[in-house]
Amino acid sequence: MRILITNDDGINAPGLAVLTEIATELAGPEGAVWTVAPAFEQSGVGHCISYTHPTMIAQMGERRFAAEGSPADCVLAGLHDVLADNPPDLILSGVNRGNNSAENALYSGTLGGAMEGALQGILSIALSQYLGPDNVGEPDPFESSRVHGARVVRQILEHDRADPGYRLFYNVNFPPVPAAQVKGTRVAAQGYRHDTRFSVEPHKSPSGRRFLWIRGGDQRAATDAGTDADLNLKGYISVTPMRADLTCHATLDALRDRLT
């Protein structure tokens, strides 16, 4: 199997090293793993592409490239430049340092890379490691994704189907616990953290200029039972199938009746 990997934490991020291990195991001795990852951290850029300026790309090693762009840029570079003559069978994005459950998925560059892969017609999976009191201070906070990642990807590969139209991609979040405490894997809808939002925190520089830092919401805020973040906080790996189609299909008929 030929696998392209990327991330949004940058080419030197520890989570990318974990993903390289996962991808190497999946590819097997007859396969190959190619890395095209951002030269610098791109967290929170979503599905951004560098449409108005060029993206510099540099080879860092064998089958390893850094691009000065977003994760979606990196996927485009991988598919249409680095691997233009022989596209990959699978795209993996991550392993993100922090969860991309619930509303975090909407901001995530990790998900943006997987979404672009799906729009290009390639099976794509985003992997993220939830952090919390039980794992953030451990020697290997990525242990649950490192140990269980290849197995979960294999399960998705066994059951994925390529329907016409917008292709499915998958959002996988590993719980904030050591690998031995993972309770299993559950397919789950995207959750919503009630009563918590992203916000800003003002600061002044030594020169007196005013700056704003973006602040995330409470990552342990409750979501509906059985949704991704709820299951993650209960010790489960969540797998959420997604599409780039943003249409609210449940509302179409009612709104059509009112507007025609």
TrEMBL record:
Q: Which residues form the Survival protein SurE-like phosphatase/nucleotidase domain?
A: 3-194
Sites where the protein binds a divalent metal cation: 8-9, 43, 96
Q: What class of enzyme is it?
A: hydrolase
Keyword Manganese in the entry? The reply is no
Q: Which reaction does it catalyse?
A: a ribonucleoside 5'-phosphate + H2O = a ribonucleoside + phosphate
Cofactor: record remark: Binds 1 divalent metal cation per subunit.
The record's GO molecular-function terms, alphabetically, read: 3'-nucleotidase activity
Q: Does the keyword Disulfide bond apply?
A: no
Q: Which HAMAP family does this one have? A: SurE
Q: Which family does it belong to?
A: Belongs to the SurE nucleotidase family.
Name of this chain's protein: 5'-nucleotidase SurE
Q: Top-down, what is the taxonomic lineage of the species of origin? A: Bacteria, Pseudomonadati, Pseudomonadota, Alphaproteobacteria, Rhodobacterales
